[in-house]
Amino acid sequence: MHAVAGGESPLDPAVTAAVVSHFRRQGERPEAADSRALDRLTPREREVLVLMARGRSNAEIAVDLVLSAGTVKTHVANVLAKLEVRDRVQAVIAAYENGLVHP
Asked: pTM of this prediction?
């Protein structure tokens, strides 16, 4: 609970990868963003999304990009809002589905 309250993903990166793999095999598309939604992201938001897709926590993203944890949290919130998704998992799925990141 503390990790989630701190803005970290409640799912292990391996679980996120399994979810993405499942949807690819099923040919289904969860309520995720289309490629035009990715165009609304700023370059920094795209960087944050790529790191999210690699399973990085907000704290790890902050270290990687030399940002404060609060700034990363704001970027994550902006990514979710612009992609019109509920959570990090859906954002990551959208990133994979639209070719921003590759397995």
From this structure: 0.69
